[in-house]
Amino acid sequence: MKRNVLWLLSTITGVVLLFGYHTSTSGPEAVGTPPAAVSGGTDSGSSAASTGGSAKASGSTSTVTGSVAQTQWGPVQVELTMDGSTIEGVSVVQYPNGNGRDQQINSYALPILIKETISAQSAQIDMVSGATVTSVGYQQSLQSALDQA
User: Fold this and answer.
1) Tally of CB atoms within 10 A around 111
2) Rounded to two decimals, what is the model's pTM?
3) Could you give the domains of the chain?
């Protein structure tokens, strides 16, 4: 009789622990909106109308949009605000944000990439650990924008 009770309690405990475990795909815990420095994004399922970049000049500052870098998680596209040959600002026009995990990763990684870009004034920046795919796409689009500038 004791063995049956012990077996039943251990089985119930195992089932409770199994269903109580939250995986990384359970959904966002406290995912906020992307930071203000990230201008916006499109769903990772969408594709850009053009993969080429563009440049607009106004006075001594100009805006240069890099080409869209297609990654396995979605497109990444960077837009630079240049004052001569100096990078004054960076906006990420497109980035993967199709699910809570993408939003969580990119809300952390994109501000770091933007800060590194402005600090380095080039595409030679470190990747963000845990956001390797987005970092590679960011660097490709950034280099495309710098090539146009």
Assistant:
1) 18
2) 0.62
3) 35-148 (3.90.1010)
